[in-house]
Every structure is written in C-alpha cells, then in structure tokens.
Design a protein that fits this description.
With about 500 residues, the protein is α/β, with parallel strands linked by helices. It contains 17 helices and 13 strands. α2 packs across α8, α4 packs across α5 and α12 crosses α16.
Length: about 500
C-alpha cells in the first residue's frame, strides 16, 4: 500500500464531469452577503424562515428567464427589506407599505425593466393596503410577491391583518377575536374582485409538493410581466418559527394544519385583462406635458446657441413664505427645461402661507437626474438671515451664496463658499414692488454664473405673469440684479465675514 505522500488524488474538475449538479447557489445572488463582521457567516433569516426559500425560488426564476440584468427589486420595511443584501439586481428600498407605489413609478419610467415588489403581510395588508389595491386596480405591469406568515415578524410578533382567529400575539394575548379585532384579511380574494389583475395565485411552503407549486407560480408571475400582460400577484403562506415559538418542522406543519384551511390554495385569476388595449402607459416628454417649447440648442451654423458651462448645477432657494422662494425655483427649472437641460424642482414649506419657512431644491443637468434631493448645493440663494444661518454650512466648497441683505452678519463664521450679498429687497422697493426681490436675485445669479440665458428667463416670466405692470417690474428687477453684480461684485463678494 503506498504511503500517504504517494496517494494521487484525481483532478477535481475531471471527477465532477461524472456528476450532474442538481442544486447550486443561483448566480442571481451575490457571491458574498455583506453583514457585520460577527454575523458574516449567517443570513438575516431565522432557521426555518420561509424568506430564504422564497428568495431561492425567485432567484431561480429570474435566472431561468434570463432577466437578471433588467430586474429591479423593491423592498419595504419588514423582514422583506433584507432582500437587497442577497439579490444581485437593481434594488430600491422604500417606506413601510409603499412598495407598489414605488414599483409603479419605476415601471412607468422604465417600462422595459422587470419590477418586483417583495412584501410581508404586516406591510402589504396593513399600512400598504391602499397602495396594493390601487396598483392592482390600475393593472400596473409589475409582479408582487406577498409573504404571509400571519404575524408581524421583524417588530416583535404583533397581530397582523392576516392573523388567524384565536391566534395569540403580543397585541392579542387572548387570541384574535372577530368581535374585537375583526376577521383575517384575505388579500388574494380581495384583489381578485378587481377587473384589471392578470394573474393571482396563493401557494404555501408547507411541504416539498407545495414548494414546487410555489416555484411554478413565481415563474409564471414573472412571465406575465415579461410578456407585458398585466399585474401579477402571488401570495405565499410562509412559516415564522421564531415568532410563532415553534421548531422549524413544526412551523411547516402549522402552515398546513392552520393556515391553509383559512387561506385556501388556488389560482384566483389567470387571464389577459379584456380592457388592456395599451401595452404600456402613455408616455410624453415632460416639456410637452408642461406645455413648454424647447429652444433649439444650436444655431444655423451648428454651434450651441447658449453654452452651459456645467455638467450639473444644484441650487437651494430658501426664505419666508411670501418671498417668492418656490416661484424662483420654478423659473430656474423651466428656463433650464426650455434650454434642453434635464431639470428637477423639489419644494418644501410649512403650513403658513406667509412668514413660514420655505425652500426648494433645483437641479439643472446635462444628464439624467437620479434624485431631486440636494444635500450640498452648489448655490444657495438665501432670502433672509434665518435661511443664511441655517443652510450656509451645507454649500459645497468653492460654491456660491447669494444673500438678500446689505451686509453679512458679523458672527456668521468662516465658510468655504463665496458669499455675495445683494440688497435685493431695497432694490425691489425702489422699483415700487417688494414682490420682485426674488427676480433681483435671479438676475444676479444669471450674471454671476452665466448658467442660463437671461432672455430665456425673461420669456418664462412672461408666461407666468398676466399683468403688464408686474411684468415690467420683473424685467427691471432682473436687469437691476445683473447691473448690481457687474458694478459691485468684486467689492461685495467675500469668502468669510472676517475678510470684509
């Protein structure tokens, strides 16, 4: 017999040729599941949890259909939120219950993508009831996977809309009573009363036979979306051993013995909606919807008629309600749209019509804009001292602050951004209308940065202003803002109050 050192092991790859791989990790999953260092060798899910099984079935279907590169997962609050740690696809995390609404927006913006809403019963059947009903009623071409374990799993075992009669939870210690908490909500049956859904089925993870049925249902739901047929919904009865206080095997049996009699397994809808004449929602350019005429970006010689010397410019406008803060942001956005830029405008304001705080975010870009939210703007237009103190520190290094005032507060402190104070309110008063202070600052911004063509801004103002007197005041305010920058910019602009 040869010594251990003389034993020759067969080549591993050659040996594998004699075997057929029956089970393997799907390529749709990440190679490594990122977790904290002490937890990196385990998943988020408890032993026996149904989420792992559902993940595997969905991943297999995505891989079989060859749609991994165009799939977007939408996961809300609950155990379902962990999906983005595992699926190597597009992932969007949303607020509690809002997955169908977010999925609707994503699908309409990207109709060629496969959009999946992945939700639990505490999420979909409780706080998200309105979202799922209206998405289904519109026949949105998304796929919803609804994991129903009859309880709130992540948050400690409270009663869910799907909790069974007599089932004890932390919020129903005597068991669910129809007279007090009502009966369980049957989401598949509820959605099947609507005309628009194309496919609705309820399956269970109680045993291998039913898991195979769940596998077929999940694949079919995705095929329905791939083929552009309509809304597809699969409800999956799933075990939750930890919160139920059962061993994994007993939890599977509980699904069979307790849940299936209450939530019968069947296909509730499998047809092409008769009313669905359009294969995709109607889509029109934003400029067409807004009734905005896009200027030709090039002149007769093929040169750009107005050169935008930026790839992306972000602006925050802030002040009191009544100062025209939101209007100034709208004018910037519409002027950018007319010059062929991608634009966004995001307002934020308190309940007061006058004197309450108000600000808005504006983005002008030569590329598509991912989010309208701006944390660190390139430009801050502060129409009062409160806004200056609140937002000045958020402006990017070497950015610009336009401040409506006669001087900068001495105790403002050092800032990396340049500050140009413009007495816009005083200039507006001299013009006879305090309302046009925002236009003075707009004129100053256009002159200082040259970001947009002033004639475009004026044409936008003309469409927004009905009264000729106010239009003339706005025109003069724009011009006065530009003049002020030309005459006093070098004297007024500082990097910090200490340099004045």
């Amino acid at each position: 017999m040869p010594a251990d050192s003389d034993v020759i092991l067969p080549d591993a790859e050659a040996a594998m040729e004699n075997y057929e791989v029956a089970q393997a990790k799907s390529s749709v999953f990440y190679d490594v599941y990122e977790r904290k260092s002490e937890l990196k060798h385990q998943t988020h899910y408890c032993p026996g949890c149904g989420h792992g099984v559902v993940h595997k079935l969905i991943a297999e279907a995505i891989e079989d259909l060859g749609v991994q590169d165009k799939t977007i997962f939408v996961s809300p609050v609950g155990c379902s939120v962990f999906a983005y740690y595992y699926f190597d696809v597009g992932n969007v995390q949303v607020a509690h219950g809002r997955a169908p609404a977010a999925a609707t927006g994503i699908k309409r913006a990207c109709p060629g993508k496969m959009v999946i809403s992945y939700q639990g019963d505490g999420d979909l059947a409780a706080i998200g009831t309105a979202e799922i009903i209206h998405a289904a009623n519109r026949g949105e071409k998304i796929t919803v996977f609804f994991v129903n374990n009859a309880i709130y799993g992540m948050t400690g075992g409270q009663m869910a809309p799907t909790t069974l009669v007599g089932q004890k939870t932390t919020t129903s210690p005597w068991g669910r009573r129809p007279s007090n908490e009502g009966n369980p909500v049957h989401m598949a049956e509820l959605l099947s009363t609507l005309e628009a859904p194309a496919y609705i089925e309820r399956v269970a993870l109680s045993d291998n036979k039913n898991i195979m049925k769940a596998r077929r249902a999940i694949r079919k739901a995705l095929e329905i979306q791939r083929d552009g047929i309509g809304f597809s919904f699969v409800e999956i009865l799933s075990p939750c051993p930890t919160i139920w206080g059962l061993e994994p095997v007993a939890a599977r049996q509980w699904v069979a013995d307790k849940m299936i009699p209450v939530f019968p397994l069947q296909v509730f809808r499998d047809r092409k909606p008769q009313a669905a004449q359009e294969t995709t929602p109607p889509q029109r350019p934003a400029a067409e919807v807004a009734g905005v005429e896009i200027h030709d970006a090039k002149d007769a010689g093929g040169k750009a008629s107005y050169e935008h010397r930026f790839q992306r410019l972000t602006v925050k406008v802030a002040g009191f309600g009544g100062q025209g803060v939101l209007l100034l942001g709208q004018l910037l956005a519409e002027a950018g749209m007319r010059e062929g830029l991608e634009v966004s405008w995001l307002p934020s304001y308190g309940p007061e019509m006058r004197s309450g705080s108000a600000h808005c975010h504006v983005c002008l870009s030569r590329e598509r804009i991912g989010s309208p939210l701006i944390s660190h703007p390139d430009v801050l237009i502060a129409m009062n001292e409160i806004s200056l103190r609140k937002f000045a520190g958020t402006v990017r290094s070497s950015g610009l602050i336009l401040y409506n005032g006669n001087s900068i507060p001495a105790d403002l402190g050092l800032l990396p951004a340049r500050i140009l104070w413009v007495p816009a309110s005083c200039i507006a008063d001299k013009l006879g209308s305090a309302k046009v202070a925002n236009m003075v600052l707009l004129g100053a911004l256009l002159e200082k940065l040259g970001c947009l063509d002033p004639t475009t801004a004026l044409s936008v103002i003309q469409t927004k202003t009905g009264k000729s007197a106010l239009l003339e005041a706005n025109r003069k305010a724009l011009e006065e803002g530009r003049k002020f920058v030309l005459e006093f910019s070098q004297l007024q602009e500082v990097c910090a109050p200490a340099t004045v």
